[in-house]
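Researcher: Here's a chain I'd like modeled. Treat it as a single chain, no partners, no ligands.
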Amino acid sequence: MDPKHDRLFAFGGYEVLVADCCYGYAIQDEGVMLTTQLGEEEGWHTLAGNYCPSCTRPARRFGSSLTYDSRRGRLLAFGGGMHTHPYGFVDLFDRANDLWEFLPDSTEDWSELHPSGSPPSLAYSVDGRAFLDAAHDRMLYVLGGRVWSLNLATLHWDSLTNSPAKIPDDAAIAFDPDRSVLFAVHFGNVWRLEVAAPDEWQPVAIAPAGAIPNGEAIWDPSRARLVIFSGPQTEGAEPSGPTPVLRWLDPRLAVPGWQILYDGRIPSGLTPTSRAIYDTRRDRVVLFAFAGQRYELVARPETGRWEPIPASSIDATASLSSAVYDPLNDRVLAAFLGSRVFAFDFDDGGGWQAVGGALPEFSLVGYLPGERRPIVLGWNLQTWTSEVFELRPSAAADEWVRVPMIGAAPPPRWLAEFQGEFQSPRLHYFAGTDFLDVQLDSLWTLEVADSARWSRRAWGGWIASPYPGTAFDPYRGIAFVYGYQAVGAGWRYEGQALNVRTNRVDQFAVTGEPTLPVRDGAFAIYDPVHDRFLFGGGRSNPTTYHDVFAFAWPASGTVVPVGVTPADPGPANVTARFVRLDGRWVLRVEGGSRRIDRVELFDVAGRRVGTRRIDATAGVGAPLQLEMPASMRRGIYFARVSGLGFRTSLRVPALWLDR
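Model: Modeled as a single isolated chain. Structure tokens:
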């Protein structure tokens, strides 16, 4: 970490691959140094100096320690392990205890250093932790309770401990530079060592906290506390993946205890499924989870933790086939195999209620956000025929009404998407498998008016992932697929996006993408509040994952085409934002070098919030202010702006409204 320039560095590492029948290790490229700027969205990138073909650099390795010497503006890499073959049982493991210097702001390349003294032996050169002790101008290196010191001015090694301590090699180590104290954490147990008098590690008596998984530890200097990030967690007999749980402990207390700072786990006893929706009114993910023989809804806001939603339990005897969010009525609609469609209203707390009458035994529920009406696509699995239904409200009871269908219909698919476009009577049916578990790569479009008409298109270059995450952006018309594919000897995640308006398929990689473990049954949804796709959960037997990742499509996209084709984006200098004026909220639209004639504002459900025309005598670039009604709620809105020779749409967040 370079605190002056707010950037991180990474060096080496490995990826576990499967080849020649066995697990093996793929080591990072020779001498590659990666960096990323905190607070920016540029992601990790390779420093330019690594492309020098004639430069001397450290061999490929993992388990090295990396320290930033802030006084001299250099990175020091010590030790590490090397595999001479990447696969299976023929791996040959070597160790190194060499020291290398990297200058990120000058030559951007490596040079080997040759310090004096007694460096850590080869037995202690892999997976150690190094820390900068700036007050004493030295680097501390710790492994297995042994501590070494490297004088950064003279490059001389000294051993600060004379014999190995009873500290496990895999203990997490943290350093308090203000008090010159090292801490070791192992399964929640804590030891401390005074570096000024490093005779023996002393155990810290802490309050009982139960089993705490091993993970990384850091020292929080602003609050003088230890923070640990948990590793794999066991829930009953079933392990889960790396769980995002942060715990903290204040070692200054007489009897300190571990406290949870952040918990990203789904509550114990619940298993995530691949079905989720985005609750735009509350800005949160809502996920279906198994709870024994029942489904239960759990929700996670942007900065919170997974929490069960009260009264959301429903019988899981019939498998869940699809689920959508109905923002107009603030409810989840869910279709179950061999059953009816049920609705869960977030506000009334009355549990699940049946919607309409009986439907075909295998049905998918979709939603047209612009027209605010649910649509069901159902199949009779005995005759293999399909039907389309729309929900028709009435004073007595809502009923599913059959819509006449024109043209050939698609066959049933399991785990398919059935999603509607915004301000268009079209729904798109894609992804999923047939009932023989064969992936299907075509996309069918259903246009629902007085009748239902089908059309079909191929999806070239489909990602051959067994069970990819799939989602749909109803505003741009982007069908999204994100899954893993075999690449060489291993696997990697890739994404594709099909624009249903232009029929263009884009293969893409996500900037700053983490190395995701391969998993099946993950969920993917579109989040219209933050204009991004979310991907998370899933299983890789016997591991269950609780994580959620977010990424935008496109990375620089800010314009959402509400009723406008992508070919007519309009002028880039048209802006729209909410401002506070005389105690009320108004939408302020400015046209730059263009004259604006008309502004319409829609909410995320497609309802028109307001319209304003401008007098023809208004000057070019004159701002327009549209007063918001008192009933307006926080959320996401879309402004459609038109003028002489252009029409464009802008996504306008209003997450701060205090009504």
